[in-house]
Amino acid sequence: MRIALASFGSRGDVQPFIVLGLALVRAGHEVVLCASRDFAELVAVNGLPFHEIGQDFQASLRATEGRLGAMVDLTHESITRQLETLPQAVEGSDLLVATGGLLTGPSVAQALGIPYRYVSFCPRLQRSRYHTAPAIPINHAPQWFNRLTWWLNSTAWNMAAREPLDAWRARRGLGPSRDLFHEAVTDAPLLAADPLLAPLPPDLLGNVPQVGAFLMEDSRPLPDEVEAFLDGGEPPVYIGFGSMVDSDPVQLTREVVKAARAAGVRAILSRGWTGLGGGEALPPEVLALGPVSHSALLPRVRAMVHHGGAGTTHAAALAGIPQVIVPHHLDQHYWADRVHTLGVAPEPLKRSRLTARQLAEVLRWSLQPESRQRARELAVWIRRDGAEQAVDWLTRGVTTARSDSRVRRGA
Fold first, then answer.
1. What pLDDT digit, counting tens, does each position of 141-177 carry?
2. Burial call 372-387: b when 16+ CB within 10 Å, e when fewer
3. What is the spatial distance between Cα 37 and Cα 176, in angstroms, rounded to a whole number?
4. Structural contact between residues 99 and 7, judged by C-beta atoms closer than 8 angstroms
5. How far apart, in whole angstroms, are the C-alpha atoms of residue 248 and residue 252?
6. What is the rounded (10 degree) CA torsion for 294, 295, 300, 306?
7. Among the residues of 221-293, which ranges form H helices?
8. For labelling alongside 227, which of 159, 296, 345, 402 has CA 20 to 30 A away?
9. Strand 30-35 versus strand 2-8 pairing type
10. How far apart are the first and last CA of the chain?
């Protein structure tokens, strides 16, 4: 079976699909991974065929800088570019599996007459009266408020993206869309997140299937400079904000370095899309680096400061280390709340108000024996087989479904 995996999003959306793609290949399927050009090398290094779709995601993030008008323009451009590139990438496939902000997936699958599945990495993407819509950074609210946010979520996405999508659908004889976001995520997406870290709310239990997270087994050795740094003193803390962008990475680096000094710890800074560690010379107790194997590095650090992405949160939990989360947007607020509830992280820090004093204080918390013990206890329960479990659910009944769709379309 040929399966197209498609994502429009950050590394946190693409890397788990690489893990899923490799599991599908091991099960005997042919896979093509479709994503923005930012991830062509990452996909190729892991041995999967790649097809570029959409526009440069990193450049798009930097261009919007949180401005509403720019974000609406980006949404229009994103929909248009996806519709120009995704059908060709998916052509000939038996199944389309999507994640991230790929709102065009259901329409392209319908036009090609193939089944469509969606994989979510956080329960907050599924409509529930027990939590707000993803863009709302509130974790505990009355049910009436939660329902209101979901109505606003659907309305906003329809206003921003339905016009170009419906024009494309009309040219192919398809009726208009009704609720872009809900149609993309579907009634029952596969939730790929650890049940302990991300329990389903009561109104989704039994309706949304859940497997563990898609965790990458990265066997690459650490670079020599990292090994030398680790051997040169006490285990450091690891600080990085992944695919987040920042308007002043130099100032952010200064605050982070001051915090590490105040807490009396060495630090490894992950540059990421933030650009952390650039602009000025770093003191000898701080090392900045590019992408490395989390599997190799995280078990050797004392704690991790990060943005709260789903993959990063799971990786830190699996490594058994305390976490300090500085959520920026979307599901990151959910993950910050969850690890705090589980006792392996302090209360989250606001990015807009992040100071060296605040960060130093929570770093001291993360180094306490009690914090480290709770993190080690949590690690024992984290599931590692999410991708393998997902293969059967995603492919079940696909051949019949595709044959039926061809009959309905007169193929």
1. 999 999 999 999 999 889 888 889 999 999 999 999 9
2. bebbeebbeebbeebb
3. 30
4. yes
5. 6
6. 30
7. 224-231, 249-263
8. 345
9. parallel
10. 19
The secondary structure element, H or E, covering residue 184 is: helix 180-185
For 367-409, where are the alpha helices, taking DSSP H only?
A: 369-379, 386-395, 398-408
CA distance 7 to 86: 10
Q: Which two tokens stand for residue 115?
A: 């089944």
Task: Label residues 336-363 b or e (16+ Cβ within 10 Å = b).
Answer: bbbbbebebbbebbebeeeebebbbbbb
CA dist 183 and 195 (Å) reads: 24
Contacts within 8 Å (CB) and 24+ apart, 131-136 = 131/201, 131/334, 134/330, 134/331, 135/329, 135/330
Residue 255 near residue 356, CB atoms below 8 Å: yes
DSSP secondary structure, 281-311, as one string: PPPTTEEEE----HHHHGGGSSEEEE---HH
CB 32 within 8 A of CB 95: no
Tokens 């059967």 correspond to 392
**Locate tokens 């979510």: which residue?**
120
Task: Give residue-wise pLDDT tens across range 315-346.
Answer: 999 999 999 998 888 889 999 999 999 999 99
d(CA 317, CA 328): 20
